[in-house]
Amino acid sequence: xxxxxxxxxxxxxxxxxxxxxxxxxxxxxxxxxxxxxxxxxxxxxxxxxxxxxxxxxxxxxxxxxxxxxxxxxxxxxxxxxxxxxxxxxxxxxxxxxxxxxxxxxxxxxxxxxxxxxxxxxxxxxxxxxxxxxxxxxxxxxxxxxxxxxxxxxxxxxxxxxxxxxxxxxxxxxxxxxxxxxxxxxxxxxxxxxxxxxxxxxxxxxxxxxxxxxxxxxxxxxxxxxxxxxxxxxxxxxxxxxxxxxxxxxxxxxxxxxxxxxxxxxxxxxxxxxxxxxxxxxxxxxxxxxxxxxxxxxxxxxxxxxxxxxxxxxxxxxxxxxxxxxxxxxxxxxxxxxxxxxxxxxxxxxxxxxxxxxxxxxxxxxxxxxxxxxxxxxxxxxxxxxxxxxxxxxxxxxxxxxxxxxxxxxxxxxxxxxxxxxxxxxxxxxxxxxxxxxxxxxxxxxxxxxxxxxxxxxxxxxxxxxxxxxxxxxxxxxxxxxxxxxxxxxxxxxxxxxxxxxxxxxxxxxxxxxxxxxxxxxxxxxxxxxxxxxxxxxxxxxxxxxxxxxxxxxxxxxxxxxxxxxxxxxxxxxxxxxxxxxxx
Amino acid sequence: xxxxxxxxxxxxxxxxxxxxxxxxxxxxxxxxxxxxxxxxxxxxxxxxxxxxxxxxxxxxxxxxxxxxxxxxxxxxxxxxxxxxxxxxxxxxxxxxx
Lengths: 583, 97
Fold this sequence. Notes:
Chain A is an alpha+beta fold.
């Protein structure tokens, strides 16, 4: 009797264990093997034949007060798919879909899809709003499926679009960052896809190690940029107006903190809207400020003088005889107005933008020293956090002909990327030390930890004394020469230099009537908060950069002073306590 | 060598029944907790994503407002460009915006 009882108990126990094992096995398949499918079902609350929802980290602008504003995020809505095999009334379905679909769905395309009776799933409309999707869903039209979807959304539209970048399918079937920050930080922004749906129990079965230390949490996150949205908007507005006014091929600008290399605004016109890539010229998708090189012209002269001053071959009191034109290796180099100045101090090379004077400094420096300085400025990439960075063209500085060095001294015959130029000129504003330009300040990890990126690499290129002496010259230029002295700001020192370069004709020569205008400036001169680089390529009906770019530059300077409440750095006339200037 | 034998106040079989029963209850409870946790995780995640999308729309409006203000032609709105600017020693009371 007792043995029979034991047998029954064991039978029941075996049955219970068997059932438990069945449940365990079922759970394994539900949660691990088919976890994604069930997760999608739970998430969408609709049946779906599509892939998982697109997920990706956000990119943020940083306002001056530290507030984060989305530059790239995710939008959610619905897509509409049809099953031609069960679609009984295409006319009704088409009418209902077009009533709520924001995207264009042509009648011909819809009926062509509906006629494909050998298929069971064809997506016909995307990016429906919440309200539109739910309205269509409640109609329960046979053969019409309304499914949730998410997509990349850029709240600023075209704001900093070329630097933020885009995502696309590329060669695979996964959306990945293709340009800009989206590409550079793709490893941080991309999501593994199933992290959302894994839970403690499933993790316990699959990988105990991952449960203790979640590897995705230390890799995946959001990107925090240094771009200030209002400054970016102001720069873009100024650049667009400039480009339209002069009918230029392109115009661009960068505003950077010269002490840290943090890029506060960066733009090029024409650009594109990241939310609508349907009719975008693929050539616009890159970042020209990082990828393209130009001959920048006379904004190179401050670097030539800084090199000469640092090497000790000149001092601010040094004089030279400016003859207006000189002949070097059978080629003639002339001042912009072809006029001789006689014996003058070297500061006039900056104040009057004299090519003959810059060439004289290059000759005084000697080829080896000149090459060494300019290679330290432009010989390496900046490693700015953007893909496809270009490199400078400095081949003229490897040849023995002096003409190559002389033309380089005033920014012709060598070509650099705009980011390289602002890094090098930033050294004048930063005591002779080049910093690393960058667009991203920190990564906010999924774990909540904000990890600051290290951009502390500094490259000394000349001494602080030489930098200050050149700054004095550039400040005099703004106070006395720019707009005939009307550009002066009595309470703020501003240093600047204009540049006008002839454009290459593609046949080894230069156009005589087509120019590349550039402008660089920083303020306050002796403790700079901002350095601004502007350029416009092939403006029509105007020859000199001082005519095209000064207004945009000064507008940005006044805006930045007010917006950041930059305190005055120099006094007012003691007698009056006031000063006036013409805006 | 003496034969050692432990006398328990309950049988091993009863202990096993109790253990199995307890484990079964714990197991079912764990399943319930995990399922609830998974459901809440998905719900919260979706809620966060929906909220983020709503915030993105607001941010889009903010950025559009900034662009509109920047693009405003004040002269077309009836304002005249000042003939001169006066810089003063004291901070203007109207400057603290």
